[in-house]
Amino acid sequence: MNVLLCSINTLKRLYDISAVEVGQHFYWQIGGFQVHAQVLITSWVVIAILLVSAILVVRNPQTIPTFGQNFFEYVLEFIRDVSKTQIGEEYGPWVPFIGTMFLFIFVSNWSGALLPWKIIQLPHGELAAPTNDINTTVALALLTSVAYFYAGLSKKGLAYFGKYIQPTPILLPINILEDFTKPLSLSFRLFGNILADELVVVVLVSLVPLVVPIPVMFLGLFTSGIQALIFATLAAAYIGESMEGHH
């Protein structure tokens, strides 16, 4: 009898997991458009964290940097290295774009893991990392697409489109398809990894004692940072590729 009750309770927990707010959203109507309110709220929080941190650091720069200034200078140097490695000597104008992508995704991923979003109750859905919504990752990927098209066109003009028939016009459909799959790959890679990490933690917390999921959560913080680095690195690589004009 006890075994049966235990099995029923386990199945009930699994059913509750299956009903976790996947696919449910809290909507706002803005100018005739229906938007995901929880994504806007968490995105605003992430943007506020980044803006406040930057303002606090740059409002009184020191010749001998303090810990906070030193940390942000290290982050800036890291982003510049990533941009220079992938784009080349003309990386300068693209550092703000690559840095914005990296920092927004990094802070978004970590906010989903560290901030107690679930204590804030919504009529529908729940608050989570902005990158946990496919619309956010698609938007970031499309921004990257616009950036590398702009980079190629601004440097080569209409001659940029000549790459589609290189090395032979027979490859035209494949080269066009490649440009469509780049944002798709960026979007689903980021979204899939973040969502999978959150679902794994939810399942483990429900099925086993808290001692086991805690190391997994710390591993999730590490992989979240890696995902931000991968996205920023690929974005820089695509921009560098469009400026060089070869694959």
Automatic annotation (TrEMBL):
This is ATP synthase subunit a, chloroplastic. PANTHER family: ATP SYNTHASE SUBUNIT A, CHLOROPLASTIC. GO terms for molecular function: proton-transporting ATP synthase activity, rotational mechanism. Gene3D superfamilies: ATP synthase, F0 complex, subunit A (1.20.120.220). GO terms for cellular component: chloroplast thylakoid membrane; plasma membrane; proton-transporting ATP synthase complex. It is found in: Membrane; Plastid, Chloroplast thylakoid membrane. Belongs to the ATPase A chain family. The chain crosses the membrane at residues 35-58, 94-114, 134-153, 190-212, 218-239. HAMAP family: ATP_synth_a_bact. It comes from Indigofera tinctoria. Pfam families: ATP-synt_A.
